[in-house]
Amino acid sequence: MDKIPTIKDRIFLFLERKNIKKETFYKETGMSSSNFKGAALKSDLGVDKLTKILKVYPELQKNENLNWLITGNGSLNLTHQNSVPLNSDKDSNEKLGDLLSSLYAQYSTQDKSILFIQKQIERIEKKYDEAIIKQNNYLEEILSQTKLINK
Question: Is the overall model pTM greater than 0.70, yes or no?
């Protein structure tokens, strides 16, 4: 199966395969449809929201489905209807915790990278503004010298 780019895209595939309407999904999870439209569709899904989805749709908690949902690796398997509650198996809970911790660490790293890039952009913009002011001052000086020479 082709790798689906985002968790949100994979959620939509899951809903499609289960014949669950998006409106039903939003109602059952308490999430807003605006989190899954436009530019927000490409943004990350918070760990709290992911946990809520896993509680509402326990078939996504199966190791292979959870791995697929979070990483995009593997495939969605809906052949077994028996679901495992979040708190029934210690190993599954530990694996879920590890995956969610890893996901959170990735988000945290990305957030730090974005902040660094934003600060770099601000610094470059400031230098650019200073250079424009300096250039304008030079141009004014050249124009004033040209006017003096022409008199």
Answer: no
| In contact, 29 and 8? CB cutoff 8 Å | no
Lowest mean pLDDT segment, chosen from 71-75, 100-104, 142-146: 100-104
Length of the chain: 151
Residue 124's SS3 state is: helix
**Could you give the dihedral angle defined by the CA atoms of residues 136, 139, 140 and 145, in that order, rounded to the nearest 10 degrees?**
160
| Residues in Cβ contact with 25 at an 8 Å cutoff, skipping those fewer than 6 apart | 11, 15, 31
Structure tokens at 63: 């190791």
Residue 87's SS3 state is: coil
Per-residue pLDDT of 64-83, as tens digits, reads 888 888 888 888 888 755 44
Both tokens of 94, joined, read 């530990």
HSE-CB at 148 with a 13 A cutoff on CA atoms is 6
Decide if pLDDT at 30 tops 60.
Answer: yes
Residues 59/65, Cβ–Cβ less than 8 Å: yes
**Domains of the chain by residue range:** 7-118
pLDDT for 88 equals 52
